C-alpha cells in the first residue's frame, strides 16, 4: 500500500473528513515518526510494530592502490540505520 492509497482508504472510511485534511493527518503522523527517529527515540505503535534506529560505527577504509588504511571521510558520520519489527498480532 502506498501513501496515496492509504489516504484514499482513510478518506473513504471517514466521509466526514475532507481528503486534504486526511492527507495532512497522514503527513503529520509520518513526519513525527521521522523526527522521533532522527532524535534517536523509539516509536511503538501497538498492534503494528516498533520503529527504532541503530547507530553505526566509523568505518576504516583502505586505499586499493597504496594499501594505506584510514578513516573514510565519507563514512565518518554514517547515519543510523532504521529498523522495523512487526508486532506479535501481525505475525499471526
Kindly describe this structure.
This protein is an alpha+beta fold and 92 residues long. 38% of the residues lie in helices and 23% in strands. The chain has helices at residues 3-13, 19-38, 88-91; strands spanning 43-45, 49-54, 60-62, 69-71, 81-86. The strands form two sheets. It has a three-stranded antiparallel β-sheet. Helix 1 (3-13) crosses helix 2. The chain is elongated and about 65 Å long.
Summarize the structure.
With 92 residues, the chain is α+β, with helices and mostly antiparallel strands. The protein has helices at residues 3-13, 19-38, 88-91; strands at residues 43-45, 49-54, 60-62, 69-71, 81-86.
How many DSSP E strands?
5
Helix content: 25-40%
* Order of strands, widest sheet: 1-2-5
Give the overall shape, derived from the CA principal axes: elongated
Number of helices: 3
pLDDT under 50 segments (min length 5)? Answer: none
- Protein structure class: alpha+beta
Kindly estimate the percentage of residues that lie in beta strands according to DSSP: 15-25%
Cα-to-Cα separation, first versus last residue = 20 Å
> Could you report the average pLDDT, rounded to the nearest whole number?
84
Order of helices and strands: HHEEEEEH
Integer-rounded radius of gyration:
20 Å
Largest sheet: 3 strands, antiparallel
